[in-house]
Design goal:
alpha/beta, eight-stranded antiparallel β-sheet, six-stranded mixed β-sheet, globular
């Protein structure tokens, strides 16, 4: 069925409201827009769904939510054993609460018990609730840090991690077979609550979650020692961290937690920022102003669903500057190792996990301190799988896992990135350094002196629209067909294709099979130690290029980054 036929089916469906049909009638003369909305359905993958909110098959809307939930419900019902229960959470985005309640109503209509939060909650608390209450699956309505036009549908499995690939494939297959309108089984949300099929989660779950978060603290005494004078500014970027992050910081012992008032307002339009992404420095403008006013030492910001955290600290000139995700992870890893040694809580065989696009400095920190370090694909579902496999196999205990994109996982009570726990540990770490008379920037420079001068840069090659999907595919296909033999005048000595799981030695042509395979990622290793990794984003219309370098000096590593970045820019 082509896009125009799909458009006409939607326009004539009694499932659509008058307002939805009017929206479709308004694009009747714009065939390009019709094509972009109806050429295909949103692809369901291991990250679930994510897309722009509008009426259409390739958009996020109530009908896509219903269709996806019906397919997931059938998967849950077919699974042997287990409690047929699904936990549901959501963030502050426009329509998130409506989408979450509709998903609950459809699960209830299929005879599946539901636990849904009474209002928005951080993503890691949903992961916790799945594990705590023994649910078979979970749904989170969020588009994480995407722009305001987006919403998404994340699916979790019984271990609290995002849906494994084989289950995601089954959901996608069911969606192909189910009619988007006529296949839906549901009850009213109120009816589900009244019958007991739908249970509302509230403060009691928060307390259980916070108890586990606080158990990850290593050195509360060091916080108490500086608490009278130490000040930090916090922003939830209009999202789900607005209650629990300040609360856990206060319980840690922080006396001066100053929240950005304009950004404590829950608003899916994110009116004070261009994008609610803590990776973007511009989002911290109000926080910087407030921090300067109060003489704060640290700024913490969490994204709308509170799974990512970004920080700013004072640099050598006293101005606030971003600490990157790579740097924050290295700082936390080094601090956690030291804190556990001091507290005598280090496990016998400690392990750190990082993604393949995360700085190699993390591996250096781990190995110097006798901690094993393993790579995984990008995505905390892969880190959760690796953690489960290593620990169940008796190979050791994971003390920290992180990605360069501002995501950190600590402890056993969640299986996803967790900005609540990470915010607490960041505050504890900065307080510890303050007790040593050091700023966080001084601490980072100390790590460079100890472990080596590493540098990283990520380039985003934007490829929006219908044509963008084809451009992304063509770029990856071209790099596979004609891989570079040199970049910026430096010979490529090895290339890795994580789709086939093969590594090729460029000099000899010899191939070896890698442990990791099945992901559309390419890596090129240069003779000077610089690494270039190319990966299409799974959630946004762009190709990401990661450049990682190291050198004897900061200037040397920076020059390598600049040279390789020019090559990356030419790929667009």
């Amino acid at each position: 069925m082509n896009y125009m036929e799909q458009y006409k089916i939607w326009l004539g469906s009694p499932a659509l409201s008058d307002e939805e049909k009017e929206e479709l009638r308004n694009i009747a003369s714009d065939e390009k827009e019709i094509e972009s909305r109806f050429f295909s359905r949103l692809e369901f993958g291991t990250a679930g769904l994510r897309g722009i909110m509008a009426v259409g098959l390739f958009r996020m809307n109530i009908h896509v939510i219903r269709h996806t939930t019906q397919a997931l419900a059938e998967l849950v019902l077919e699974e042997p054993g287990g409690d047929k229960c699904v936990a549901i959470g959501y963030d502050s985005r426009c329509s998130s609460e409506d989408f979450a309640r509709e998903a609950a109503a459809i699960m209830a209509g299929n005879g599946i018990k539901v636990r849904i939060f009474d209002t928005l909650r951080p993503t890691p608390e949903l992961s916790f609730a799945i594990r705590e209450y023994g649910c078979m699956a979970g749904i989170n309505i969020t588009a994480s840090h995407n722009p305001k036009e987006y919403n998404g549908y994340k699916v979790y499995w019984a271990d609290g991690a995002q849906l494994p690939p084989h289950h995601a494939k089954r959901v996608a297959e069911k969606m192909d077979k189910l009619d988007i309108f006529s296949s839906i089984r549901k009850v009213g949300f109120g009816e589900g609550v009244k019958s007991g099929t739908i249970t509302i989660m509230g403060g009691e779950t928060d307390e259980l979650f916070l108890k586990n978060v606080l158990a990850q603290a290593n050195d509360i005494d060091t916080v108490k020692a500086v608490a009278d004078n130490f000040k930090l500014v916090y922003s939830p970027f209009h999202g789900a961290g607005h209650i629990l992050v300040p609360e856990v910081l206060h319980r840690l012992g922080m006396k001066h937690v100053i929240c950005v008032p304009e950004q404590m307002v829950l608003d899916g339009a994110f009116p004070t920022v261009q994008s609610p992404n803590p990776e973007n420095p511009e989002g911290f403008a109000l926080a910087i102003e407030l921090a300067k006013k109060h003489g704060a030492d640290l700024i913490i910001g969490t994204d709308p669903d509170c799974d990512r955290v970004g920080i700013m600290a004072r640099d050598d000139s006293g101005d606030f500057a971003i600490i990157s995700g790579n740097q924050t992870g290295v700082l936390l890893l080094d601090y956690i190792i030291g804190a556990k040694i001091r507290a005598k809580t280090m496990p016998e065989n400690p392990i750190a996990l990082k993604s393949i696009v995360t700085t190699e400095m993390a591996r250096r920190v781990a190995e110097v301190n006798n901690v094993k370090c393993f790579d995984t694909f990008t995505g905390f579902k892969f880190m959760a799988e690796k953690k489960n496999a290593l620990e169940s196999g008796g190979d050791g205990e994971v003390i920290f896992a992180y990605e360069e994109s501002y995501g950190y996982m600590i402890g056993d009570f969640v299986r996803d990135k967790d900005a609540v726990t990470a915010s607490m540990l960041i505050a504890e770490m900065v307080a510890w350094y303050a007790g040593q008379g050091m700023t966080l920037f001084e601490a980072m420079n100390g790590l460079y002196e100890k472990y080596g001068q590493y540098g990283e840069k990520t380039l985003n090659l934007l490829m929006p629209g219908f044509d963008g999907i084809n451009k992304m595919r063509e770029l990856m296909a071209g790099l596979r067909k004609n891989p570079p033999t040199e970049i910026a005048g430096c010979a490529i000595v090895a290339r890795r294709d994580y789709e086939t799981g093969t590594e090729v030695d460029m000099a000899s042509g010899a191939q070896r099979q890698m442990e990791l395979s099945g992901s559309n990622v390419l890596r090129f290793d240069a003779a000077d130690g610089t690494i270039a990794i190319v990966r299409p984003s799974g959630t946004e219309p762009k190709v990401k290029v990661y450049i990682m370098a190291n050198g004897k000096t900061h200037t040397e590593s920076r020059k390598k980054l600049d040279r390789f970045s020019k090559w990356a820019e030419g790929l667009a």
